[in-house]
TrEMBL record:
This is Sulfur carrier protein ThiS (Thiamine biosynthesis). It comes from the Bacteria. CDD domains: Ubl_MoaD_like. Transmembrane segments: none annotated. The lineage of its organism: Bacteria, Pseudomonadati, Thermodesulfobacteriota, Syntrophobacteria, Syntrophobacterales. It holds the Pfam family ThiS. InterPro entries: Beta-grasp_dom_sf, Mopterin_synth/thiamin_S_b, ThiS/MoaD-like.
Length: 79
């Protein structure tokens, strides 16, 4: 099943050919978790601080159903 993934900021270094306008379309096994998706992408889960699935906050153990839009964000610093 396919999901669309959008990667923000410093997480993009793990996917060098990433196009922010298109995102990534990736096939994952049915019922895969966000954690499994991160492993497929080569992004350490420890670096992902915010996960959104179809605009709703999610966790690494959230199961995917297919055709979702997954957005991944690192910690944001500032002052």
């Amino acid at each position: 099943m396919a999901v669309s993934v959008f990667i923000a900021a410093t997480l993009r270094r793990y996917y060098p050919d990433y196009d922010p306008l298109k995102g990534i379309s990736i096939e994952v096994p049915e019922g895969a978790s966000v954690e499994e998706l991160l492993k497929l992408l080569g992004i350490p889960s420890s670096e992902v601080k915010i996960i959104m699935v179809d605009g709703t906050h999610a966790r690494t153990d959230t199961r995917l159903k297919g055709n979702e839009r997954v957005a991944l964000f690192p910690a944001v610093g500032g002052g």
